Amino acid sequence: MKKFSKCLLVFVVFLCATFAFSQSTVSGKILGSDMNEPLPGANIVEKGTSNGTTTNFDGDFSFTTNASSGELVLTFVGYNSKTISFSGDQDLGTIMLTSSEVGLQEIQIIASVAVDRKTPVAVSTVRAAEIELKLGTQEFPEILKSTPGVYATKTGGGYGDGEIRLRGFNSENVAVMINGVPVNDMENGQVYWSNWAGLGDVTSSMQVQRGLGASKVAVPSIGGTINIISKTTDVEEGGNFYTTIGNDGFRKFGLTYSTGLMENGLAATVSAAKTDGDGYVDGTPFNAVSYFINISKEINDQHKLSFTAFGAKQRHGQRQNPHLVETFRASERGRKYNSDWGYKNGQLTSVEDNFYHKPQISLNHYWDISDKTSLSTAAYVSFGSGGGGGFSGVNKFRFDDDTYRIGVLGPVDLDLIVDENEALGVEGSETILRASRNDHKWYGVLSTLKTDLTDDIVFLGGLDFRGYKGIHFTELTDLLGGQYFSDDSDVNDPTKMAQVGDKILYDNDGKVGWLGAFAQVEYDIKDNLNAFVSVSASNTSYQRVDRFLYLDSDPLQESDKYNFFAYGAKGGASYRFDDKNNVFVNLGYFERAPYFNSIFANRNNTDVNEDAENQKITSFEVGYGHRGDKLSANVNVYHTTWNDRTEFVSFPGQEEGTRNFANILGVNAVHQGIEVDFVYKATPQLSITGMASLGDWRWQNNVENVQIFDEENNEVGDPINIFIEDLHVGNAAQTTFALGTNYNLTAKTIFTIDYNYFADIYADYDPSNRTTPGPDAWKLPSYGIFDAAIRHEFKFGNFDAALTGRINNVFDTEYIADARDGADSDVFTSRVFYGFGRTFSVGAKLNF
User: Fold this and answer.
1) CATH hierarchy code of domain 233-847
2) Residue 823: beta bridge partners?
3) CA pair distance 615, 669, nearest whole angstrom
4) Per residue in 539-581, pLDDT tens?
């Protein structure tokens, strides 16, 4: 027995020694070729096994193989896979993965994509894989809700009606750029996300640059810049089919195919998807068809062309009107209650809806003039068509008027309104449905020259030209049983008996011109220092055309053109103490022209506020970053002063049919705060993410002696005062917190849980209405929600496939996401929108 034991011991020792000698320790560093930066989370697998690891935040990896020699397979979403041989203990050094998309690097340059630890701005980046995992049935901006300083909601809850606020600034003060092209409305600065339904399917990455941002063009980035980079076209041939189902009849299916880079230098990718559903909120059905096409051509070593077109034709019901909390509680539908829809002939009919189609078409040319100089030019056009529905005439849509409701707080009884209009006969309809149309024609050219002045100094300069024509009119869409609708709004046809399709109420154009120039010098010492100085200048011109208020023969039908010159300067530096720690600082000052409606606030061509002040923004920020083997963290402190916010108020005069107005100058605000975010890689399988954002956003001062004028520019009454000093800015969470986990159950299965907490949310209000001293706006109850998702990749025959499941608001928490301040600034008088309860989606994707 002792002899057997000794033999067994010798055999075990021999077996262990043999196994040990058959293993190897392999290490290396993985970078992406497009931005020459580390790829954290890249997968390294020993070929033929499930043994592997992932890279850390600096792209480094090290692990023990099962065999002493063999091959490693390296993969990362958006990059071509690479197979590398190893033998024995080996440091493979730096390994470069090439982008799987043609022209992606050039688009990132023209779009001013910030580079981690180099560009001195506070930045967060979400890549395509995370969007695919976490978007589900959410609105596209909500993918950013765990980002510091961000507050994203669905507002009324219609498909595509989501809004995003950044550091307390609403969408008109947050620049949104797609492939470097600004998409904020040129008349009012707003962003309508419903115009970009389906954008999540074709986004390569989405980067939030908080504060001044890295963009060189003059854009309204008071709060920051959301930089969206679309797919270009894949290097390798292939495609995928995907489908998703979700709550409340959500259905989506789509197809993508890429030719790959062919021998003639041509590559093309096409994608299309159809989405529809009933909507979580009552009366908000939706349907959308989205599409994307990119054709790239490598002409020679110096020239590349890339043609991109994408858009979505969509229509969705809306919940436009918020209500008192007690109204939602009184309704059987609770937080799903919506007063803006009804039934007509048994068919669901939206009183308030939105329909739009806005193709975005661009042609990009990249020219490598020499080894040191390149020119990137994007020419783009956009043709928008659509608008939003509503009613005109006698208001029979009051939510608390049971006469025209099916039950208490029920849907609108449109059949009763039809019966009443039919009974009026030749007197015409007294109530109709109409659409406020906002068509537009938009074109521009953005060109950037980049040249290396020395090995360390780079100069960038360029031009930004845009032209815009907004076409605004009301279209009669449904007579609701009547024979016509009487409208006297058009002086050229004051007795109009309007039919469906006719223009009523107003018909005017807003013309906006933009010419900007920018220059930037970058100083780059690769070991530890990056710095830049940037200047820009722009001229914005406004002109108004009105075909209803003025006779066709009246020269006043077209207003004069009014010009506003603005400029800006900013700079910053990032210093890297070592491979793990860096600091940065940036500061800047810029002016922004007032928006179109501030110049023509009375919506005519004669009462012009041509002396409107430019808005003036001063911002500075400091930040610290740490990149360790386990922990990656950022801390940012910011201070933004917004002076001379445009406040041009128009309201009814004392005599019927007249208007008074006031040009309120000196409305200032200060937005300041601290932001912290981190990722902790607890184990190779588990990472923990988190952030905290503490803001203090307040109006800075009262405004005294505001004079009111009539239409003839005569003073009306005594001056008034605006009392807003030290009141909190409304409409965004000033305190946010997030904590999440990403756990790889297997090499092919990932599970995530995210918790988001929002507090210090003040109801929205217009500071111009605070003409008497009063309290802060109503403070909404704080709330927190959990989201979860799981994704599993597997083989389906010879194809790679994946299943993704997602639940938002796992515990069905009831919360108020948006509110408009009431007369007493409390819960009893403020009107609210509730957030969504528990929602879910399940999706499948097949790659071929």
Assistant:
1) 2.40.170.20
2) none
3) 11
4) 999 999 999 999 999 999 999 999 999 999 999 999 999 889 9
Residues in the chain: 848
In whole angstroms, what is the distance from residue 252 CA to residue 323 CA?
A: 31
Asked if residue 572 lies in contact with residue 116, where contact means CB atoms within 8 angstroms, the answer is no
Residue 712: burial class (beta carbons within 10 Å; 0-12, 13-18, 19+): exposed
Contact yes or no for 387/315 (Cβ under 8 A): no
Q: Could you tell me where the beta strands, DSSP code E, fall in 599-668?
A: 615-627, 631-643, 647-652, 659-664
The domain ranges of the chain are: 22-97, 233-847
Q: 368 falls in which pLDDT band (50, 70, 90)?
A: very high
The identity of residue 135, as a single letter, is L
Q: How many CB atoms lie within 10 A of CB 499?
A: 11
Instruction: State how far the Cα of 59 lies from the Cα of 30, in Å rounded to an integer.
Output: 5
The pLDDT score that the predictor gives to residue 8 is 46
**What whole-number distance in Å separates Cα of residue 554 and Cα of residue 194?**
38
Q: Same CATH fold, 233-847 and 22-97? A: no
Query: Cα-atom radius of gyration of the chain, to the nearest Å?
Result: 29
Closest among 113, 57, 123, 220 to 621, alpha carbons compared: 123
The string over 183-211, giving b where at least 16 C-beta atoms fall within 10 Å of a residue's C-beta and e elsewhere, is bbbbbebebbbbbbbbbbbbbbbbbbbbb
Rounded mean pLDDT, 620-648:
90
pLDDT digits (tens, 9 = 90+) for 88-120: 899 998 998 877 776 666 676 667 777 777 889
Task: Place 804 in a pLDDT band, splitting at 50, 70 and 90.
Answer: very high
CATH number of 22-97: 2.60.40.10, 2.60.40.1240, 3.40.50.150, 3.30.565.10?
A: 2.60.40.10
- Local confidence band at 128 (pLDDT 50, 70, 90 cut-offs): confident
Q: For the whole prediction, is pTM greater than 0.70?
A: yes
Q: Is 684 left (phi over 0), alpha (psi -120 to 50) or beta?
A: alpha
Say how many C-beta atoms besides its own lie within 10 A of residue 7's C-beta.
10
For 285-372, strand residue ranges (E) read 286-298, 303-317, 323-324, 341-344, 347-350, 353-357, 360-368
